[in-house]
Design brief:
Length: about 425
């Protein structure tokens, strides 16, 4: 089978790496890919937002199956376009990807179906939004309704900060994504991520994985897309997983089907474990990045049949096998990330790092130029290791990190610490 993966990040490198080992695969393409992906797939220079270009390429190249990595093309309707062209696709149609594309849609769905989430209000007017914020008091959370590359959420500790955030968003900081606001109750507790494959009716939970969102050690500093991950995540006990499936994931899947928007693809729920049980913070219509890196490292089953079963509505009776070992992924980012950073700096020592036992170096933002690998983004590498437990995987991952010679990069030194505390 000919497969096309859409995307260019660490998540897509992990997907390509896993798919490239499939017994079902003939040829693997990636659009647009990166320097690491080029080692396992043929990269084609088509951007993830070029829906026409992707569909035309898939047709011409007789692609049998398209796996879409990022949310932007899904929200824009790439899966719909591929369905129209008669091509199988992993990833939800636009009317289901809206769970990530509109926070207001997600919240209203929860309200209609009694799914636990933070209390909230929706606003397109600053006067009303400010009145609501003053009435509720701080802490309070202000969110742009639409996609904002993970930057559209402000957890405000004062009323003034919340009003300023609301003014910024409604004033056009995120363009059309900020035409509407969701303002919600601050939830106290520990955060947990949850991934499940969903085929329209059936949800199959994946292994647990947890990211570290803050840029600095000890989970300090500004939010990022994720500075590292570990799997399994001890807080995702069997009991909590069952509760999340029963109270959140299965009800969301049933609600979407009942409303004529069957959800198909991977559903990534961000949760807060509160005193009143798990509550839904957000839904993403794609794999977490870098959660996908540790999930693929631990997946023992052939990934391609699982993605196909999801696309074809065949997940009932499907099962996945996972390695007993743990995995840790350490993100190496360009200095300055998540703020301004330089591109084009050279990364050396990748071969040495890859030679460390049980390690795979996934590329997130790299290009090759004149035989050199250059940084080409904020998050640049995802150094991923397997080990008997989190401590062993962490040790191997940092051995590989230390083999990489990239003075313009940095990483956290404590990925996995929450799983290691006594
Ligand atoms: P989101 O993009 O919705 O995941 O929000 C980004 C981050 O903001 C989350 O990972 C949480 O740390 C935080 N957050 C979002 N909503 C809430 C909430 N209602 N209460 C507390 N923290 C929140
Ligand atoms: N690691 C967080 C995300 O992918 O949204």
């Amino acid at each position: 089978m000919n497969v096309l993966v859409v995307g260019s990040g660490g998540r897509e490198h992990a997907l390509c790496w896993a798919i490239s080992g499939s017994a079902m695969l003939d040829r693997l393409w990636c659009a647009p890919g990166n320097a690491g992906i080029a080692e396992v797939a043929t990269c084609v220079d088509i951007g993830v937002e070029d829906l026409d270009g992707i569909v035309a390429f898939a047709r011409e190249t007789k692609i049998d199956f398209v796996v879409v990595g990022p949310e932007v093309p899904l929200v824009a309707g790439l899966a719909d376009r591929l369905h129209e062209a008669g091509i199988r696709v992993f990833g939800p149609a636009a009317n289901a990807a809206i769970l990530e594309g509109s926070k207001a849609f997600m919240k209203d769905l929860c309200r209609r179906h009694g799914i636990p989430t933070a209390a909230y209000g929706e606003f397109d007017d600053l006067v009303q939004a400010s009145a609501f914020i003053r009435e509720r008091g701080a802490p309070i959370v202000v969110k742009a309704d639409g996609l904002a590359a993970g930057k559209g959420v402000v957890v405000a500790t004062t009323v003034e900060e919340a009003i300023e955030a609301a003014a910024g968003i409604l004033g056009g900081r995120f363009g059309a994504s900020g035409a509407k606001l969701v303002i919600e109750e601050f939830l106290d507790g520990e955060e947990m991520s949850f991934h499940a494959l969903v085929d329209g009716k059936t949800a199959l939970p994946l292994a647990t994985a947890q990211d570290h969102k803050r840029v600095f050690d000890g989970d300090q500093g500004p939010n990022t897309g994720g500075m590292g991950t570990y799997s399994p995540a001890p807080r995702g006990t069997a009991e909590i997983q069952r509760e999340v499936m029963d109270r959140i994931v299965d009800p969301v899947v049933a609600a979407m089907a009942a409303e004529g928007r069957p959800y198909n693809g991977v559903l990534y729920a961000g949760l807060m474990l509160t005193q009143d049980g798990p509550k839904l913070i957000e839904i993403n219509c794609r794999f977490g990045d870098p959660e996908c890196q540790v999930l693929m490292a631990r997946l023992r089953s052939d990934v391609l049949p699982a993605l196909l079963a999801t696309a074809d509505g065949q997940l009932d009776h499907f099962d996945l096998r996972w390695r007993q070992e743990a995995a840790v992924c350490v993100v190496m980012a360009a200095k300055g990330y998540p703020g301004d950073y330089a591109k084009g700096t050279e990364i050396r020592g990748l071969d040495k790092a890859a030679a460390v036992p049980d390690v795979t170096v996934f590329h997130a933002g790299t290009v090759t130029k004149g035989g050199k690998v250059l940084a080409n983004g904020g998050r640049v590498l995802g150094v991923t290791a397997i080990g008997a437990d989190i401590a062993a995987a962490q040790k191997q991952a940092y051995r590989a990190v230390d083999a990489i010679d990239w003075p313009e990069g940095f990483c956290r030194r404590d990925i996995g610490w929450r799983a290691l505390k006594p």
